[in-house]
Amino acid sequence: MAETTTAPAPAPIPAHVPGERVIDFDVFSPPGSQADYFGAWLALLDGPDLVWTTANGGHWIAAGGSTVRGIWEDAARFSNEALAVTPGLGEVMEFIPLQQDAPEHKPFRSAVMKGFAHQHIVATEPLVRGETVRLIEAMRPHGHCDFMAEFAEILPVHTFLSVIGVPPEDRVRLRPLGRQLTRPDGTMTVVELRDAADAYLEPYIRERLASPGPDLFSRILSVPIEGRAWTFEEAQRMCRNLLFGGLDTVVAMLGNVMMHLARHPAQQERLRQDPGLIPDAADELMRRYPTVAVTRNCVETCEIDGVTVERGDLVYLPSVLHNLDPRSFDAPETVDFARKLTQVRHSTMGAGPHRCVGAALARMEVIVVIEEWLARMPAFTLAEDARPTFRAGNVGALDQLALAWQA
Predict the structure, then answer these.
(1) Example GO molecular function term (predicted)?
(2) Domain at 19-405, CATH class
(3) For the chain, which residues score pLDDT lower than 50?
(4) Which of 7, 71, 190, 294 is the most exposed place for a label (fewest CB within 10 A)?
């Protein structure tokens, strides 16, 4: 998904796009997003539910909650094959199962979900808790930290690499690849990014195919695909998919959760006094701070929000514009630990047949981090004069988050 450092000229506006739906909006750099990522996106709620931008080759943006959610769930008319608004990305990455449509998608998705079965998530919790405690105990005497660099960039990647059975210390080598996919800076082409991931994964994939172990990749590759074994190419595409999926989203999520608690000492204290609230609080915080956006390509010309979406058009779906639309949730910007999310499902983890396969693992990580941080750290705040900064992209994330406490 690499972008050039010099912005390309705006793409021509297709004839079927009404002029009043065209806006100046680059999803990789929304105006003001560095200081206020969520506010930058929420500005789109003031207009139509579907708008067109000429940035990044030209594409639609779903800008209303029901439209975001509706297209996300509409696998019949909107495919995930294109993967992103960057031209050519889908053809290069060829992720399994993320870029597959029915019926091809089902057996591969089923195999992956078996790898993420509940008993495996439960078995991973001691690993997550142990690493969380280690990182907290190392930071606590200092009285301050950059939460992103010293915790969020470490724990989820350490966890994922441990789960797939590769050396956790390879985080230093692999973490930049995750950033390049979701928040490209132009230093790598898409082909270079794919090839770097494949070069790293290949020996592990061949080993797992020949002699499966207890790791996540082995569990998935041990599940036959409609009665036959996985081919190497299929295994490579699946492992590539999961590697990129495991390198960035939880990093971003943890940063936003901790930023909120630092800014809201009363809610922080409430969770300290009643840890039983933490699972519901984790769900609500994940709803309140969604940063993932996906792209769907239209495979059947249709009308949405009063305009024609033609076959081949790309539609960008920001989860923030579903979760924080007042038409989707009451007082959506308010964090309410008693909110009953079973009534309206949020879109932080996606929706429909491509909902995030690692959602349960991510949720468990967030819960464990909140539990251990509040049990072991004194009250904490944003450091004096701290200004959290964001970088937008297909996964928006904090660049830095300075926290402070009494050591």
Answers:
(1) heme binding
(2) mainly alpha
(3) 1-6
(4) 7
